[in-house]
User: Fold Translation initiation factor IF-2 from Stella humosa.
Amino acid sequence: PETITVQELASRMAARSGEVIKTLMKMGVMATINQTIDADTAELVVTEFGHNIKRVSEADVEIGLKGEEDAPEVLVPRSPVVTVMGHVDHGKTSLLDAIRTTDVAAREAGGITQHIGAYQVTVSNGRKITFIDTPGHEAFTAMRARGATVTDVVVLVVAADDGVMPQTIEAIRHAQAAQVPMIVAINKIDRADANPDRVRTELLQHGIVVEKLGGEVLDVEVSAVKRTNIEKLEELILLQADLLDLKSNPQRPAEGVVIEAKLERGRGAVATVLIQRGTLRMGDVFVTGSEWGRARLLLDDRGEKIEVATPGMPVEVLGLNGVPLAGDDFSVVENESRARDVTVFRTRRRRDQVQAAGQRGTVEEMLSQI
Ligand code: GDP
Ligand code: MG
Assistant:
């Protein structure tokens, strides 16, 4: 994982180490000057110091890969992308399963079958929500380490019988560092020893003030197992999405992020891509990380063949020449020769960076813009 020492972080911000240590302490992290902290925590500190931070990903600007900004009039609403986080055994997987069963479209199609690293549910009013189906902080941080901001909303699952635990706090920090709004799902309320108010009070101690206690963080009591209040949770997600006013231009070459990728026997390199802008079509040539390909086959989250994928849709893409990494960006380009040029450039650039910066390359890079 990416790390940086307290001293190095302080010097990069031209701040006193003591101030950094004090800020860390306020965040509940005890660290000495020579200790290392992870990139997310570092980013949070940087934000606390009032600096803007931008993680450097690929040399997209240099090579002009990312398309220019869209004019406001071509933007249309897109569905929110949600990541579920929380302490182990608090019910992340159960909640994702429960949510999947609310999918109106899947029910109509006769059941929920295959799923990839993300899925989209259609809620009763016809609106859609995309869930990243790789719960846990690792996926979240791995993607952010590559500069990918995938998630619009974090659902923080806290078991009502267990309360705030170390990974709950970690999840809060990640969401805060990424500046992603949080919705608290107080789970397992069916249990006899459930104490949702205790969860709210404990969250308060970590700076999370839920609505019931007069704050602004949306919260809902759920039971993933009994399927209680799952629709209510979805409503809150859509409410939060409305506040964020999420929009995207579907009328342009596709851009997105790799959620997961692997080599599969008989299928070759396969990537699950979340489309963020534009429309991906069969036959499109694309670049992703240091790999490129031509979309030979597109499958939706139920394994059905599709011709196009639009913003907010997770899609399985076949036709890659290699396996990209989770969090790698994905961009459609004009033709194969352009795709080759970009990947050659990126491969060389990545190698140079690694040589220049040594092991801490990515952190150094990330902090170079403070
Ligand atoms: P994860 O580690 O956060 O993904 O948690 P899981 O979804 O695997 O759940 C851990 C355990 O808690 C499992 O035994 C679940 O059956 C149980 N569990 C999850 N949600 C609920 C709930 O709403 N009520 C009760 N009683 N048990 C739950
Ligand atoms: Mg799980």
User: Anything to note?
Assistant: Residues 54-63 have pLDDT under 50 and may be disordered. The radius of gyration is 21 Å.
